[in-house]
């Protein structure tokens, strides 16, 4: 079995790569930094369409799965790059990789609990989805007054919406796609989230006992990438230790 | 490892029992009919509170998981029994079994895509959740004019809502609960759903290519019952070959 993935050098992705290797996959990684222990590394700047196009040409299919895990956290000043890497780059790389996926192949996208409000923000999500490429981001960010926190949330909202929107086309290609929405995971970028989302993050973590571990999210990604989940299509899977359930029960008086 | 489950004799549950056995679990089954290949069968009428209370006394913990899979399909005339088995019996058995679960133990509830509208029907869902027991169902069904299709949908809506609502309490007990929402699965009761929900079922099946297979739903249940999913808490997991995604993309113009 062969897996292609982005964002394999650090955080959740590094553990996904390890777990895939342990299950016998050959792992091909697109990343700006060199990941450890993968079979092939294709250095790729996921914010640069030309780099993505070149990178995909360097790998041969077929792959049983494509795991789109690369993503930037909410960081001030990175508004455009966040939208370019987390959403536009993910879409471009996926489109180029689809013909290299084996029949029955799975795409798994790392979204986020921060994207949970995608239905409420659908007009802006659709506007992002309609952009021609990252060159249009500067005008879009200015016009829509998107700060770095909103850029992050919007990028993940769009990942969830794009996942849904590809379901029918991928069924016709004998492929499938799902997304994973983790919250508050103890990786190198947890501080960015605490800074961006404030006290709420600490409160949610306290309520469920601790932050998630990258291993836990990796287990879900590996499940969705493998054949034991092949009837699961077009769904977003929350993994947050119960944070989302607690928020809903509070809100709904359950 | 030891698993307790309801509804192990037929359909999805029979395959869950097989898969658990293949993974080395000892399987204890509560069912009105005798399941094949389980380690202990406790004959249980899940519509009868006294029978449930007796059944739970017959088994000793600890169990690593409790899988609440027993359920009746939408069948005319069974309004009260559907609500009694699919929801009230599930809750009663779970409450009695929680003290027999091992630390870190998982509860998995079989809900249904038919329960997806639980938020829209929350007033009625809460009214069902507030009933004292099946003896109150006759008045409830009459007063709320609940037919058999509504009884089925409501029972599954309540399973999803109850799952969410137990999350915080179960975290404090070092336990967790999730639900699974399959749609149109090729088991002995698929005809009931086609009769109850009409053409829509056939249309949805055609669009995603075929009905789901019980094995596919069983794989998800086994994943949620096991340790690879232990950070997933209080979530409903749709497994429908993409039906829900297609309905949403149609509705939202994605």
UniProtKB/TrEMBL annotation, chains A, B:
It holds the Pfam family adh_short_C2. InterPro entries: NAD(P)-bd_dom_sf, SDR_fam. It comes from the Bacteria. Belongs to the short-chain dehydrogenases/reductases (SDR) family. PANTHER family: EG:BACR7A4.14 PROTEIN-RELATED, ZGC:101858. This is NAD(P)-dependent dehydrogenase (Short-subunit alcohol dehydrogenase family).
């Amino acid at each position: 079995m062969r897996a292609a993935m982005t964002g394999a050098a650090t955080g959740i992705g590094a553990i996904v790569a390890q777990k895939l290797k342990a299950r016998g996959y050959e792992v091909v990684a697109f990343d700006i930094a060199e990941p450890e222990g993968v079979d092939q590394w294709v250095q790729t700047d996921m914010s640069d369409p030309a780099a993505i196009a070149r990178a995909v040409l360097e790998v041969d299919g077929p792959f049983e799965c494509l795991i789109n895990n690369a993503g930037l956290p909410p960081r001030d000043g990175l508004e455009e790059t966040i939208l370019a890497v987390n959403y536009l780059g993910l879409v471009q790389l996926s489109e180029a990789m689809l013909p290299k996926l084996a029949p029955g192949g799975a795409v798994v996208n790392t979204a986020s609990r921060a994207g949970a409000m995608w239905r409420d923000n659908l007009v802006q999500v659709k506007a992002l989805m309609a952009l021609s490429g990252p060159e249009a981001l500067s005008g879009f960010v200015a016009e829509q007054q998107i700060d770095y926190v909103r850029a992050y949330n919007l990028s993940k909202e769009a990942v969830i919406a794009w996942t849904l929107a590809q379901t029918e086309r991928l069924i016709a290609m004998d492929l499938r796609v799902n997304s994973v929405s983790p919250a508050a995971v103890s990786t190198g970028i947890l501080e960015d989230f605490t800074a961006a989302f404030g006290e709420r993050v600490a409160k949610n973590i306290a309520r469920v006992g601790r932050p998630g571990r990258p291993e836990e999210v990796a287990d879900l990604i590996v499940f969705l990438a493998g054949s034991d989940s092949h009837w699961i299509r077009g769904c977003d899977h929350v993994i947050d230790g119960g944070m989302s359930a607690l928020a809903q029960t509070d809100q709904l008086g359950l």
